[in-house]
Design goal:
The protein has helices at 9-26, 57-73, 88-97, 113-117, 125-131, 141-147, 169-174, 186-195, 218-225, 247-262, 269-274, 341-352, 354-362, 370-385, 391-399, 420-429, 434-454; strands at residues 34-37, 47-53, 77-83, 104-108, 121-122, 148-149, 152-153, 156-162, 164-168, 198-200, 203-205, 286-289, 310-313, 327-335, 366-367. With 461 residues, the protein is of the alpha+beta class. A hairpin with a 2-residue loop joins strand 10 (198-200) and strand 11 (203-205). Mean pLDDT is 91; it is low at 1-31.
Length: 461
């Protein structure tokens, strides 16, 4: 999943005004990249609904099946899915600016809050309560953070993914290191990483990698930084204080980034850029990744023909035994401008129901809620991708967390932004200690928060 920087209120409204003027002058709006139709055709008696879909090939296949099933289930509405490739959020914003947003939009749980503040999204509570489907929104703190804003529900949880530790059984066996088990500790992880780093046949094997094919980012460090309960902010949602200089946070960054790269336990920038070194190629013993990584390890899309002999486990626990995995939640929101809100809601309700969730699971996307992960996704994923501990994803989705949730005007979000990106580059360089780097960037992070709050309107929006 791509990350996108935040946009200020002035930027959002300014872009909307410019786009609307341009659309009016040209007499047209933004043309979608591609459309996905269900197999059941629409007639003049049907109300037409527009749905925006993420740009991946798998999403196109999933939503074609979802729309076909929805059309077969009722005869009032017909939906057309518009797939935006490239910069997805730029195209969503351009459609808002042109006054032609899709009725229903796919969005990531940390990205929709600025749209809600600009009042271009319609809250879902009236529909949820009317139809008695509140159970589809788990009473879990992380789900509240990702689906609600200012006491209103805007996003319906549809798919997601918790970050878990993948481990290569063959490399563990070769080095005679016991496999990690649920409840394993940070200290065991620290011991395993150097033990699993070795050279054989002229090839370097690494004990650990930041991510499955790139260097990782802020969200990948959260399970380690928060292992003992310390959090890098005074709160996750709209923090007021940056608190990155706490001992557990600094030590996690020191080991997983500075030490791991400088000591050669983890592939650094030059190794990653060279290609061919990742968990999926069999050159890395452990990696923190989400369920979207599974097709790389077994099946027709696997990086190697034979696939990887692997399993998964929750991230290593700290003193309190908590699971601070980053549990992604993605879903659908409704445009305030939609003139077909009833139909938009019926589509959202279908996608979050059993039929829609099963199609998502069969399309190799993980369901969002822990209940659906366990009863729908896990049996399918365990079978299709040949791994045993599907419960690691269930537990991590139930107990996991989110790095950061911000409203309009914030340059930082759950996946980075400045100055987080520059701090990460410094940490990965291996030139200085994590303590020195955090000390340098802590004031800049605080300035970002101070500026964010200074620009808030009196209403808090």
């Amino acid at each position: 999943m791509e990350r996108r920087a935040g946009m200020t209120r002035r930027g959002f409204i300014g872009a909307a005004g410019m786009g609307a003027a341009a659309a009016a002058a040209s007499g047209c709006g933004v043309i979608p990249d591609g459309t996905i139709e269900g197999f059941v055709p629409a007639t003049s008696k049907h109300t037409r609904i527009r749905l925006s879909v993420w740009g991946d090939v798998s999403d196109a296949a999933i939503y074609e099946k979802i729309l076909n099933a929805w059309h077969q289930s009722q005869d009032t509405y017909r939906a057309k899915a518009e797939q935006y490739t490239g910069d997805y959020y730029a195209k969503v914003l351009a459609n808002f600016a042109g006054g032609i947003p899709a009725d229903v939009m796919y969005i990531q749980g940390w990205m929709w809050q600025p749209y809600a503040e600009s009042r271009v999204l319609h809250p879902l509570d009236e529909f949820i309560e009317r139809d008695g489907v509140r159970e589809r929104w788990p009473n879990i703190e992380n789900f509240t953070w990702n689906t609600r804003w200012k006491n209103q529900t805007y996003m319906a949880p549809v798919d997601g993914g918790s970050l878990v530790m993948y481990y290569n059984k063959d490399l563990f066996d070769k080095r005679r290191v016991p496999y990690p088990r649920p409840g394993w500790t940070w200290e065991e992880f620290q011991q395993m990483v150097p033990e699993l780093t070795f050279t054989e046949g002229g090839k370097k094997y690494y004990g650990w990698a930041q991510a499955g094919g790139f260097l990782g980012a802020y969200g990948r460090a959260v399970p380690f930084m928060r292992r003992n309960g310390e959090v890098e902010w005074d709160r996750v949602v709209e923090p007021t204080k940056a608190m990155w200089n706490q001992p557990d946070i600094v030590s996690a960054l020191q080991f997983t980034l500075c030490d791991a790269i400088s000591k050669g336990w983890s592939p650094g920038p030059s190794a990653i850029q060279g290609g061919g070194i990742s968990f999926a190629t069999g050159r890395v013993a452990m990696v923190l990744e989400g369920p979207w990584y599974l097709p790389n390890l077994y099946g027709p899309l696997a990086t190697t023909k034979a696939g990887i002999n692997y399993d998964v486990v929750p991230p290593p626990a700290g003193t309190g035994g908590g699971n601070y995995s980053y549990a992604h939640i993605h879903g659908h929101v409704m445009a305030a401008q939609s003139t077909h809100k009833e139909g938009a809601w019926e589509l959202i309700k279908f996608i979050t129901g059993d039929v829609g969730q099963r199609i998502i699971a069969e399309g190799a996307r993980m369901c969002a809620t822990p209940t659906n992960v366990e009863r729908i996704w896990a049996p399918i994923a365990g079978r299709d991708f040949r791994f045993d501990n599907t419960d690691a994803f269930v537990v991590s989705q139930r107990e996991g967390t989110t790095p950061l949730v911000m409203g309009e005007g914030s340059p930082i979000n759950a996946y980075g932004g400045e100055p987080l990106d520059s701090m990460w580059t410094a940490l990965q360089s291996g030139q200085r200690s994590a303590a020195e780097i955090v000390e340098q960037y802590q004031p800049a992070l605080q300035r970002v928060l101070d500026r964010y709050w200074a620009e808030r309107e009196p209403s808090g929006n």
